[in-house]
Write a structure and sequence with these properties.
The structure is a single chain. This protein has a single domain, classed as Aldehyde oxidase/xanthine dehydrogenase, a/b hammerhead (Aldehyde Oxidoreductase, domain 3, Alpha-Beta Complex). It is about 10% helix and about 20% strand. The chain is built from 2 helices and 5 strands; from the N terminus they run αββαβββ. It is extended, with a radius of gyration of 22 Å.
Length: about 110
Amino acid sequence: MCALRSASPGRVDGLAKVKGTAIYGDDITLPGMLFGVCRYADIPAGKIEHLDLSDALAVDGVVKIATWQDIPGTPVVGVIVQDYLPIVKDEVVFHGDVIAVIAATHL
């Protein structure tokens, strides 16, 4: 069976994108909204002996810094084997492992 090809329906947002007036998800703010940022490991492997969050918590606008201790239960995930920590506990095994998640009122 053959399907007839019809004309493109067009893009309803095309003109706004070309003019630079399109609104994207990053453009939307809500009252009381927080921004989230992950702090990634910048080493390929190693032990975390201590996290001193005092300087980071003192930054204006920082509301919370979550670490593995803030995840209830057994915080492991995985597609085949449930063995990966979404936030590392005391051992970095990959460059880019998440060490902490920061919530703040502004970036």
